[in-house]
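Appendix B. Extra example for self-study. Work through it before the problem class; the solution is given directly after the inputs so you can check yourself.
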Amino acid sequence: MAKIIGLPKLSPTMEEGTLVEWAKKEGDAIEVDDLLAEVETDKATMEFRSFDKGVLLKILAPAGETLAADTPVAIIGEAGEDISALLEQAKGGAKAPAAEPAKEAAPAKAEPAAAPAAASAAPSAAPAAAASESPAPDGRKMASPLVRRLAREEGVDLAEVGGSGPHGRIVKRDLEAFVAGGGSKQSPAAPVSGLSSGPGYERLPARVEKASQMRKTIARRLVESKQTVPHFYLTIDLDASPMIAAREQMNALLKDEKVSFNDLVIKATAVALRRLPEVNASWMDGEIHFHQVVDVSVAVAVADGLVTPVVRDADRKGVLAISREVKELAEKARTKKLKPEEMMNGTFSVSNLGMYGIEEFGAVINPPEGAILAVGALRDDVGVVNGQVAAVKRMKVTMSCDHRVVDGALGARWLAEFKKLLENPMGMLL
Amino acid sequence: MRELRYREAIREAMIEEMERDANVFLMGEEVGHYQGAYKVSEGLLTRFGEQRVIDTPIAEAGFAGVGIGAAMTGLRPIVEFMTWNFSFVAFDQIISSAAKVAQMSGGRVPCPIVFRGPNGAAKQVASQHSHSVDPFYTNIPGLWIAMPATPRDAKGLLKAAIRENNPVLFLEGETLYNVKGEVLDEDADEVIPFGKARIAREGDGCTIVAWGRPYYTAMEAAEILAKEHGLQCEIVDPRTLRPLDVDAMVDSVKKTNRCVVVHEHWPYGGPGAEIVDQIQRHAFDWLDAPIERVAALDVPMPYASNLETLVLPTVERVVEAVKKVAYL
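Solution. Structure tokens for the complete assembly:
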């Protein structure tokens, strides 16, 4: 009996996946556990293996397509089987797990007198009738009462948890697995804003796209930051010429590789944090945690969002080591190979939009870090050098501080130290 | 501790209470000279004489009424129904008189009577004689209902029933009379209070509520689930259905997060449904799955032995129900 195969959920949070490559072609014999295709999920590229044995009769989705979980992607059955009905069904957009037509009729349950064979329901036949395994028809995410209570208490967003119960119901073990896997938590129930527009607000309806897991995480964390962290901003303007000169000297000593301005900024940040460790701190539920390590998170833009991999112990690393590490982390970020632990537990962030010509900007703190440094573009200016008017390069940086941890004067002292280091790069050697 | 059969435990309870209180007497069909249809009252006639062990005509409405009248005037009758199926003939006496007289007399006329006898299906006694009557009588306020599964519970609860001033329906099991179990020594005088469940087996995987014969079905299923799935079931035997120990069941479900109720009565209503209702209201936020019930199938009992087996709750059905709520 041929059946439709749906795109499996290959990670607990996967809502859609991209078929990178089919490992089998139509007509191939399939054994249980054979590799069918590679699927890129929100987390990584995963193997999609067969639970069935038979022949791959039809591929319904070509490589390269991005599809919601459970979307029909193939039909497996016996060679020569008539699959026209299944093709119709697949075209109709039926979700795959429901697509076992033979079972729907359930003749045993239709007998009026004999009530439910399992005697687990009331004698009225009605409740037993709709026993298919498809998700709730209204798309509602179902969770057991226990799970809803625990999620409320622990601040877990159930939208991010995959359900393994009937109809995708989230049950206790799913929540436990999610939390054990470092599942993200949020502060309970942020109020929903009233921004939704009434009908006819737009001349043309917007194109609506489901937010990716990464976007949802970004959204949640930034809302959390802006709603719970009292930000204030300090901007300082510094002479960038010494930094430029230092970089040129360094790159002249290197073969086949170069350090960037940002690598120098990270180094200066790390040294300044070591010299004023009060800034290297986090507000944690009524306590201030002063970090003993200087782990700098570096914002990296990727195709559909941004991630912040961490350069560990940046204060103890040379500029070249920092440079190599940032390149490697950025490459991993772009290919979605970053491991969660490579993005966790930074103590301070650096975000640089200088390459886009942004003169200055205020960044959103990445909680529980106590501050973030936003780096602007190098710009031409006129200054006084050795008593003479001359063309100079200047740069602005803006520090966003969590006022619970960093007060204005402390932030200002830190920025002054940072400025001193970049204007006298030799000072970083001391 | 000694081992006694269920019937011997009941007999001991009656003997001890008749020795203790001269107002206690036994009345019913074949309880005296025939020594009891199921030999529960064996030896009682010789021991206590015809004044206190009374053979009645085959007239349940009559002797139930006589018993109720005796209770109203100060005696403590034990009225034996040969089976609870025959109590239907005395339904009006039990419901309209026994259950109501205390309330209608403003509490001045209590009715301290015990009706007892075998309940539920036996073996191929067919549709008219296989009723589990607990859902019929538990619906009536004013009646206390016990349905013990083990010899020790049978003895301790029957002693409590005889001392109770409310009318008590004591539901035994024909297939339980030969079951052996540990019972405290004769001088222990153990009286088990009504409304107190017994945790028969501890576990954190799933609560199974079962009473009467299905208690043994549940215990067997629990062993299979432990062995084959490593799931430890907690078995709660409420022992009395009125009053009902809701707290014990709710506490257990708060621990296990899931529940299966196993009972021999039909699925429509009854204590099975009442227990599910109580648990879902009091433990809603602790439930990880809908509560399942394993009951007799919703048909009159077939005579054929193989069909009878299928209609009654089976170990396999209990295992399946537990697997379902545990998502196994």
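Self-check: Residues 2-188 of chain B form a domain with the Rossmann fold fold (CATH 3.40.50.970). If your reasoning did not lead you there, revisit section 3.
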